[in-house]
Amino acid sequence: MHSFFTMLQLFLFVLMYSALSHANTDSEDLSSVFQHALKNDFQWASKVHAYNANKEAKALGASGIKPTVKLNAQTSQDSYDSDTFGNDSYSSTSYGATLVQPIFRLDKWRDYQKGRALERQADAEFQYEQQAFYLRVADVYFDVLRAEENLTFRKAEKSAIKSQMEQIQYRFKAGLAADTDVQEAKAAFDLITVQHIIAQQELDFSLENLHTLTGVTLSRVTPLKSIIPINAPSPASMKEWTNTALAYNPVLRAARYAKQAAQRNYQVKTSAHLPTLDLVGNYRDTDRYIQTSEGELSSTSISLKLEIPLYSGGAISASRRQAKELYLQASEEFNFKNRELLQNTRNLYRLVSTDISRVHAQKQGIRSMDAALTAIEAGYSSGTRTILDVLNAQNTLYSAKRDYANARFDYILDSLRLKQVAGILSDEELLNINNWLGEKETP
């Protein structure tokens, strides 16, 4: 009997654990979504592979100034016919090795420097991709929250209008309301029904986007708390933000290194007219088999090889001119990125400040509109207001609640975008925001 109860307890524990595990997969917070995206987002995985490939630029550039070693083997069947020595045939097998060490190749040295610049460019571009990934995770997550909030308000508004419609129908039957009131209430209910359907569809779309990002099917995510810190950007000076962006923005740094790489490439092409000097070492061992004898011949040589390019159909000059124009293009792109960065940083700083004002204003507006709705409902009961006034006031109140929710979401996302453009967005920022998620409190 004791064994039976032990097994029963174990069975119940397994059922409870399974239920909790299932519940956790139905709703997860931003941190969990981020971890799923790290493992399952194919777009992020492709960026990692691209970065690993681009990191080889330095090694490829360095190969031109390092020695090359080749092994070779050859077997042949030869014959000769000579008036003096007669004719004969023989077979031979040879083995050899060749080593070439560049001594003076200015073009290869500058190609190595170009590879270093390309490696730094790849690092900067990957940092940008990292920050873009963090922001994309936050965007998708808060798109779901935005859709959930919108659906919640549509449901509440639909319920309120339905209640109003039922009251008006009751008053109409009692002869206390006009038929126009009934029709206006029905029209408002039909409209909110359509909006409710659209809100549900938008939620389904946002959850599908979340599934594409994470590979996990969720029915909801952890909501934003009712009370979160709405603080001004820190530091408070716009100039400090622009200075930070100029120093750390990965897009600007990538453009700077792209300009350096283009400059080095131009120098490579200008060096193509210069002479080259290589140290060449050869070793060859040949076994020759003639019908009457067998011989072995080995040779070793060390030499300096000088080459002076004179003319190659105009390709060298054309490549030099092309590389110069590409360098000038990279310079202009860097200048454009610099100016664009200043513009984006200032605009995002202003946008975050505006978001803060919006949040406070919308919160106060909800209180005012709620009080106005109460007064209009009282006026309708006393006959000084129409049902259309009540319905419009309800619509205005729920619109204000949606705007308040959107203002909070916009503040969070725009704050992340400001840090991204400044080049200081990290995964820690997502974890900090994750602390703002949980059950809603009463503000």
Could you walk me through the main structural features you see in this protein, from its secondary elements to its overall organization?
The protein is α+β, with helices and mostly antiparallel strands. It folds into 2 domains: 25-55 and 105-274 and 315-434, Outer membrane efflux proteins (OEP); 67-80 and 87-104 and 275-308, Outer membrane efflux proteins (OEP). It contains 11 helices and 6 strands. The strands form 2 sheets. A 4-stranded antiparallel β-sheet has the order 2-3-5-6, with no helix packed on it. Mean pLDDT is 87; it is low at 1-25.
Write the layout of secondary structure elements.
Elements: H1 2-26, E1 27-28, H2 30-40, H3 42-54, H4 57-62, E2 68-82, E3 86-104, H5 106-173, H6 179-214, E4 220-221, H7 238-248, H8 250-270, E5 276-290, E6 294-307, H9 315-382, H10 387-421, H11 427-434
Helix pairs in contact: 2-5, 3-5, 5-6, 5-8, 5-10, 7-9, 8-9, 9-10
In brief:
By secondary structure, the chain is an alpha+beta fold. The protein has helices spanning 2-26, 30-40, 42-54, 57-62, 106-173, 179-214, 238-248, 250-270, 315-382, 387-421, 427-434, and strands at residues 27-28, 68-82, 86-104, 220-221, 276-290, 294-307.
- The CATH class of the largest domain is identified as Mainly Alpha
**What pattern of helices and strands is seen along the backbone?**
HEHHHEEHHEHHEEHHH
Query: Beta-strand level of the residues, as a percent range?
Result: 15-25%
Q: Enumerate the strands of the largest sheet in spatial order, edge to edge or round the barrel.
A: 2-3-5-6
| Proper CATH architecture of the largest domain | Up-down Bundle
Residues in helix, %: 55-70%
Total individual domains? 2
Extended strand count:
6
**Shape field:** elongated
Mean pLDDT: 87
Uncertain segments of ≥5 residues (pLDDT<50)?
A: 1-25
What structural category arises from helix and sheet content?
alpha+beta
Number of helices: 11
User: Which homologous superfamily in CATH is the superfamily of the largest domain?
Assistant: Outer membrane efflux proteins (OEP)
Task: Report how far the terminal alpha carbons are from each other.
Answer: 54 Å
Reported for the largest beta sheet, the result is: 4 strands, antiparallel
At CATH level 3, the topology of the largest domain is Outer membrane efflux proteins (OEP)
* CA-based gyration radius: 38 Å
